[in-house]
Amino acid sequence: MNKPHITPQTKAHTKPHAQQDADQAIGDGDDSDSEILPPSKSARKREMTALQKLGETLMALPADQLAQVPLSKGLREAFELAKNLKQREAKRRQLQFIGKLMRAENHAEISAAMTRMDDDNRLFRQRFQQLEKIRDELIDNESALEALLDGHPELDRQHLRQLIRQARKHASSKDQAPEKASAKRRKLFEYLRETLVLA
């Protein structure tokens, strides 16, 4: 029986197909290896716990700060309901529900808003501490007033002298109640807070 005659051209023609099949098989294997697996049960639980804690943090914010956070209408309503719940178990279930709602929110925008608030709070605390230090120096040191006025012409010299004098008087008098001395110090602080321009 005669064997089929295979010309060099035929061999050359069949080889690329075999190579192509092999390449396809390798490619298919790569695709199956690179498939993204769904998150594990423990990973989903960690994510839900983190979202619930973020929800608790948001719920603890004052109303004016919470209004600055970009949240959906449904999530805002869920927060309002949670704040009004008194029963512990009901509040716990509501926080779980908030955690589920949080999954659909824009976490990047929420984080950015909270970072801005943290920065604002940090600056507020720094200014508060500066004002407290200036107030205490004005009460304790006679020369502090002139030094302050030299750098801050926006201050009312006469009114400031009066506030300092009252604060010193009540601070040094043993007959005065501590609450009254604190009130005079607070009045001086409030004037500085409202008037003094700090760099």
Polypeptide structure, described:
The protein has 199 residues and is mainly α. The chain has helices at residues 8-33, 41-59, 63-66, 73-84, 88-102, 107-140, 144-151, 157-172, 178-195. The chain starts with 7 loop residues before the first helix and ends with a helix. Residues 6-34 have low confidence and may be disordered.
Average pLDDT figure: 80
Report the span from N to C terminus.
104 Å
The number of distinct helices, counting runs of at least 4 residues, comes to 9
Please give the number of β-strands.
0
Give the CATH topology of the largest domain.
Diphtheria Toxin Repressor, domain 2
Oligomeric form: single chain
CATH fourth-tier homologous superfamily of the largest domain: PSPTO4464-like domains
State the share of residues found in helices, binned by percent.
over 70%
- What's the helix-strand series? HHHHHHHHH
Report the principal-axis shape: elongated
Largest sheet, in brief, is: none
* Count of individual domains: 2
Integer-rounded radius of gyration: 36 Å
> pLDDT below 50 for ≥5 consecutive residues: which ranges?
6-34
Label the structural class.
mainly alpha
CATH domain class name of the largest domain? Mainly Alpha
% residues in beta strands: under 5%
| CATH architecture annotation of the largest domain | Orthogonal Bundle
